[in-house]
Amino acid sequence: MTDAAAPKSLLVQDTRTRRRNTAEARFQAYGIVAISISLGMLAIMLWTIFSDGVSAFRQTTFSFPVTLEAERLDPNGNRNRDEMAKVTTIGYTNLLNASLKAHLEVRGISFEGVDDKGIAAFISRDTPARVRDMVLANPAMIGQTVTVSGFTTGRIDGYFKGRVTRETAAVDTNISAAQLDLADRLAEAGIMRTGFNWQFFTNPDASDQRPEAAGLGVAIIGSAYMMILVAIFVLPIGVAASIYLEEFAPKNRWTDLIEVNISNLAAVPSIVFGILGLAVFINFAAFPQSSPLVGALVLTLMTLPTIIIATRAAIRAVPPSIRDAALGVGASKMQMVFHHVLPLAAPGILTGTILGLASALGETAPLLLIGMVAFVANYPAGPFEGGFLDPASALPVQVYSWASRADPAFIERSSGAIIVLLAFLLVMNILAIVLRRRFERRW
Amino acid sequence: MNDMRLTERAVNAEHTKIAARGVQVHYGQTHALKDVDVDILDHTVTAFIGPSGCGKSTFLRCLNRMNDTISVCKVTGDIRLDGEDIYDRRIDPVQLRAKVGMVFQKPNPFPKSIYDNVAYGPRIHGLARSKADLDGIVESSLRRAALWNEVKDRLAAPGTGLSGGQQQRLCIARAVATSPEVLLMDEPCSALDPIATAQVEELIDELRANFSVVIVTHSMQQAARVSQRTAFFHLGHLVEYGDTTQIFTKPKDPRTESYITGRIG
Q1: Orientation of helix B164-176 relative to helix B194-207, angle to 10°
Q2: Which end of chain B is more exposed for a tag (fewer CB within 10 A), N or C?
């Protein structure tokens, strides 16, 4: 027996095996690197959004007593609403500014180095308008002393949340170090405090001058309305189309053409659907602009191909043996589909639909074209009072419009709106998983 | 047990249930079945044997028009059930399939309860007037399929949770629940172990009392054990058709002899 013929030990790897194992290890390393990169990117994205946006959920407010002086607010003394309405918000602004200054004097809080304009910069322009509405609604309040509370302006608010510091204030002509000193003293005196910003969820959008008052109320309602309508439109149309194409349609040149077109439609840029919606629903059908109905129709067109593809895949995944079994006992095609195929495909259909809805929820481009990026300060009516036709905004559109405004307080809100949008998406995805589990658990 | 044991061949009815004449089947360009003539007798077990791809399953699926679901499949010729052409324009395949039940190669119970599996056919055909009626049909069908004693305490359990042999017997119960006149079985035992196979074979013999049974099988022993008549298919042709005893002991065609002795196939 020679060395060459000696059987090789299994304990020693030969060259081929070693090379094969190295290749496999290398491949696994590529995979781990790819996953780490994407996780890293995700972490960076979330960190950016949260570090910028979490402060949107906190807001500094003030409260101090204001005497609603009759000579300022009702010069004629008639308590007549129409005459009182002649006093504009400027009159109320002056009253609030004077009251704050007087209150500082009473409390003995020094406002050294801060002029009247500087004091006025503490009170959001949102507040005078609110006080005016309150007084006009109840003229009997005139002459009383009431506690007025409201938002502080974006920069003072930013100081309490760390966005504005003494270093940035030094280069910012809109705010001075003396104002920040005063802000500290006001916070100490309990006139200003920072708390959870409920109004961020309920307030409508606000103009450029008062970012502190801007909220997501209209956008949340608009998005919710659109999702309801999209679900109502897309589920029956998508499922019916899929069933027909998958189970009933003859396989010929026409159905092939339709199939190719559905796949192509799924890849059409969403803004194209916006142009289509503008042409068909607004210019031709004359539905009101900026309304959730038009938004929902456009998003329906956009999500339909995706949902049809997902539904067809779910229907195709039902084993053919079940179809044979149903036909074999004499079920009609329709009975086969509705008694056996659909229940088995339901989890897949639901998951596809909810993921399609989620992508519609985050869609911005088509909504820009049908006027949903407009500044909407009024809430749409309830769903049964024609609210689907009232102008509304939508969450992603609100993100877009805030991000394009100059004031840093809007940028903060923009990130805050993204967090809300992500929360909505998370809820929908969890819903998809829960529904899937529930339907699958049956068998 | 002698595998080649030939059961009692008493064919007690000579009434022809299904008569096929000149049946041709094309799958697109492929000519799958060429000019098949068969008379299937009532109250008889008829076995179709032959190598894979010889067209026996295709022919079986012609008998209850299951081939309709395959869009490229084209059937010509004449198949008559009790004298009526089942490919007539006026025939609804759904009604036909209620008369000609089918059991498939792989057990395919619905993902529903055992009860609902059996009750599904009677329900959609409106065979039961009341809940008690339906309960009766379910029980008698399960008894006929020799499954009642095993499942009577868990009718609400999923049919997919049964063992393979039980599932196949459940499928047989489901098929007999609609009171068909003919029962087609496409290799019903190919997914079963020998014990389950024996149970199903015994069952087939009992079913003969009420139905005309047509069974496709790969196993010649099985054909010999359960059938009274045997048809041998080869390359799309019906080579030989006759009494099982005659086919297995004195085949007329040399191809049949080669197949049953294991030389081709």
Answers
A1: 10
A2: N
Domains in chain B, number = 1
User: How far apart, in whole angstroms, are the C-alpha atoms of residue B242 and residue B38?
Assistant: 10
Assess B98–A contact: CB distance below 8 Å, yes or no. Answer: yes
Chain segment B98-156, per-residue pLDDT in tens: 889 999 988 999 998 999 999 999 999 888 888 999 999 999 999 888 889 889 899 99
Q: Residue ranges per domain, chain A?
A: 57-208, 217-441
Q: Provide the residue range defining the domain that includes B142.
A: 16-260
| Alpha-helix runs per DSSP H in B68-163 | 93-99, 114-125, 131-144, 148-151
- The answer regarding whether domain A217-441 maps to CATH 3.90.1300.10 reads no
| Within-domain flag for B167 | yes
pLDDT over 90 at A233, yes or no:
yes
Q: DSSP characters for A133-167? A: HHHHH-GGGTT-EEEEEEEBPHHHHHHHTTSS-HH
Tens digit of each residue's pLDDT (9 = 90 or more) over A304-324 = 999 999 999 999 999 888 998
Does residue B79 belong to any structural domain of this protein? yes
pLDDT at B12 over 60: no
> Quick check: is B3 in a domain?
no
pLDDT of residue B1: 39
Q: For residue B177, is it within any domain?
A: yes
Give residues with Cβ within 8 angstroms of A277, minimum separation 6. A294, A297, A298, A301, A366, A369, A370
Distance from CA of B24 to the nearest CA of A (A): 22
What is d(CA B161, CA B155) in angstroms, rounded to the nearest whole number? 11
In a mutational test of the B interface, the residue from A329, A339, A341, A342 whose CB has the highest number of chain B CBs within 10 Å is A329
Interface test with A, best of B64, B94, B112, B171 (most A CBs within 10 A): B94
The predicted complex's ipTM stands at 0.84
- The model carries a pTM of 0.81
Residue B33 one-letter amino acid: L
User: Which of chain B's residues have a Cβ under 8 Å away from the Cβ of A250?
Assistant: 71
Of A219, A207, A208, residue with least CA distance to A372 = A219
